[in-house]
Amino acid sequence: MADFQMGEQIREVKVTPDKYLTVRYAGASGDFNPIHIDEEFARAVGLPGRILHGLWTMAQVARAQTEAAGGPEHLRRLSVQFRGMGVPEQEVSVSGTVREVSDGRVVVDTVAEQAGKQIIRNAEAELEL
Amino acid sequence: MPVNTKAIGKQYEPVAYAVGREKIKEYARAVGESDPVHLDVQAARAAGYADVVAPPMFAVVYSGPSVGPLIFDPEIELNFAMMVHGGQEFVWGAPVVAGDEITTTASVKDISEEDGRGYYVFESISTNQRGEQVCRGTWTNIVRGV
Prior knowledge:
The complex is a heterodimer. By secondary structure, chain A is of the alpha+beta class. Chain A is built from 3 helices and 5 strands; from the N terminus they run βαααββββ. Chain A has a domain of 84 residues: Roll (Thiol Ester Dehydrase, Chain A), CATH 3.10.129. In chain A, strands 1-3-4-5-2 form a 5-stranded antiparallel beta sheet, covered by helices on one side. In chain A, β4 and β5 form a beta hairpin. Chain B has a domain of 98 residues: Roll (Thiol Ester Dehydrase, Chain A). In chain B, 20% of the residues lie in helices and 35% in strands. Chain B is built from 3 helices and 5 strands; from the N terminus they run βαααββββ. A 5-stranded antiparallel beta sheet of chain B has the order 1-3-4-5-2, covered by helices on one side. Chain B starts with 14 loop residues before the first strand and ends with a strand. The mean pLDDT of chain B is 96. The interface between A and B is medium-sized, with 30 and 32 residues.
């Protein structure tokens, strides 16, 4: 059983989405918005190129919690704010700090960053141990 | 132009989703899950699940299709071209495993305006074939320049 102390950091998750990740995630999730999979389309609407799905990045935030807690059943709630955009082929890192521990319930403040910018901020995870 | 709030409270027809074992595995691989309870039936059964268990964020797969149509509902008057997905919350209940039949009902929870931005908040409630709630999603879409 994982042990959480107030103020401690959860183990960081670092992942570099490869060039074709957004295509695999589009198929897996059913979100085929062309801003994620079509370089020309993304540029035509003023983006730097294809961008990551926010919900893929949120899944990395979720994974950081379930890996820290020792299984998917421990994650009871996750709320996030999306800011800016993530891009393929650059490392995404998820960090978190335990804010509250009481009666087997843990609250973690967590964020996802890429190139020094938060792409998910003000995220809050609730774990049940 | 103020946002139109008349659709607040509107409920939509339930959407059914049959959870497949290979779909869970495909999703788990795409988000980098390595826990064998998502990928291997024997490991999932050894951990006490009836079949491979969905990662929590698989909620987007079974509940997303219920929320998508709201974005284009003319009654909501949401300007899709100016929309960004601003925030998301999921609250999980019973675990979802391969073989489950999930039914999701979406509704318009709130529509409001602040500093020239429209906030369109949708809710999805997903239940399994036993009537147990598996997930509640809160989807916040922000529209610039309303």
